Amino acid sequence: MKKLLLLVLITTIITSCRNDDDNSTSNGVNIRLENVSLSTYSDIIVNTSTGDVSFENLVPGQRSAYTSFDLAYRYAYISLQANGEAYVFQPIDYVGETPLTAGNYTYRVGIDGVTEVTIELVEE
Length: 124
Hints:
Blueprint: H1 2-16, E1 29-35, E2 42-47, E3 52-55, E4 67-69, E5 77-82, E6 85-89, E7 103-111, E8 117-123
Parallel strand pairs: 1-7
Antiparallel strand pairs: 1-4, 2-3, 2-5, 5-6, 7-8
């Protein structure tokens, strides 16, 4: 009987555990980056209006882990290095923009070959 109870307890624990392969974080606005270019990104800085946040280097097609932000919009300041060049997406302001609601988002980040960053928001 004790073995059966132990088996039921272990099964319950295992099935109730959530497997977060995408590295999602707790409540709030969680953003990750996806490199949609053919170049490796390094020295990545993102500022959603609350300060600079560094991200790890990203090879083509790679996604970063989620990072939690207090406030974010459908676009953000992004600077990075690729192919020995500096690339920047510089918002002028966020006037008229609605802050993102709590959830998981991906900024799909590309480069246009001229030193400009492209950004597309994907809601997960």
